[in-house]
Amino acid sequence: AMRSELERASAFEEALRDAVAERLVPWRFGTAVFHDSLPVVWSLNCVRVEATEASAEELVGEADRLQAELPHRRLLVMDEALGRELEDSLRGRGWKTDALQFMVPRQEPERPASDVRIEEIAHDDLIPLRRRILEEWLADTDEETARQVGEMDRLVAEAGNARHFAVRADG
User: Fold this and answer.
1) Which SS3 state, helix, strand or coil, does residue 92 take?
2) Phi–psi pair at 24, nearest 5 degrees
3) CA nearest 134: which of 113, 153, 157, 112?
4) Residues paired with residue 113 on neighbouring β-strands, in sequence order
5) Are 76 and 127 a contacting pair, CB within 8 Å?
6) Over the stretch 135-153, which tens digit does the pLDDT of each residue have?
7) Of residues 2, 1, 8, 3, the one with CA closest to residue 102
8) How many CB atoms lie within 10 A of CB 18?
9) In what order do the strands lie in the sheet with 30-34?
10) pTM assigned to the model
11) CA distance 34 to 51
12) Alpha carbon distance 74, 70 (integer Å)
């Protein structure tokens, strides 16, 4: 059966997560993903909910059990309908909720790429920019958190055979 663009994008994202993981632990409602050497990286230490039915109480209890050694709790609910159903209950328990958006280009760019100078750059060239973005996003970023997030970036780029492109400002 042909999968939708959303299903393909989501499957790619999860395949990258699994490729970088140090441990995948099956549990009642899905798979818990762990990268023990990068414990503060939420995206590599999460409890993936692959079921289409579960209560917030059950999921929070399982996250507490599975992620007891981590400084955070993260549920990644794969089913959109279940995620929306759980939002209010999770917020009521003090959880922050958000939704990941995948975007698919459906039209030609408004201006031709030849109007700007795009160049391929090495992953290491991105490190200072990624650090600035991290510090804007998490104002109290410490050196160890920055190191772990930087290592996550490198691992995911490597697993996905990423290529990086940039338009350099002022040369």
Assistant:
1) helix
2) -120, 120
3) 153
4) none
5) no
6) 898 888 899 999 999 999 9
7) 8
8) 13
9) 23-27, 30-34, 46-49, 75-77
10) 0.86
11) 19
12) 10
Q: Rounded to an integer, what distance in angstroms lies between the CA atom of residue 7 and that of residue 33? A: 19
17-64 confidence digits (pLDDT tens): 999 999 999 999 999 999 999 999 999 999 999 999 999 999 999 999
H helix intervals, the chain: 5-20, 56-66, 80-92, 127-137, 143-159
Q: How far apart are CA 29 and CA 59, in angstroms?
A: 8
DSSP 36-85: TTSTT-GGGSEEEE--S---HHHHHHHHHHHTTTSS---EEE--HHHHHH
Q: Extract the tokens encoding 40.
A: 């503060």
Whether the Cβ atoms of residue 33 and residue 39 lie closer than 8 Å to each other:
no
Tokens of 52: 């289409």
In whole angstroms, give the CA distance from residue 157 to residue 125: 13
